Amino acid sequence: MKYSWIALVLLLCACTSGPNHQEQMVEKRLWEYQLLTHLNHFKSYPEEARLQRLTGMVRVAFVVDAKGNLIRHKIVSHTGSDLFVGAVEALIPAASPVPAPPPSMLRKGEIEVVAPFVFCIEQGACTGSPPQRI
Prior knowledge:
Blueprint: H1 2-16, H2 21-42, H3 47-51, E1 56-65, E2 70-79, H4 82-95, E3 110-119, E4 132-133
Antiparallel strand pairs: 1-2, 1-3, 3-4
């Protein structure tokens, strides 16, 4: 009987301590959407690439702290012209700070994310994948 009460108390504590997995997933998806929306406000299509009708994608890994500051970044891969790499290199510092990540996503006060920056002349012709947590 003594152990039944302990099990019940532990179960109740687990049920009421913080957001559940489903809430964390919703919180994560919302933050990913806010992050990409924010970053895309700073993205500009290089004029030379536009004139040549070039398309491409740049994947960037970057670290965000608890306040949304972009701590560091690196280009992971890219397709198309180096003009797109230059555009993304200019965009990253200009976009900081970004929306702060949910505390549940942080590890040691930071999160590393890989995000695609897709450059397409025609809307809807190109798609990117959502950011990925590393």
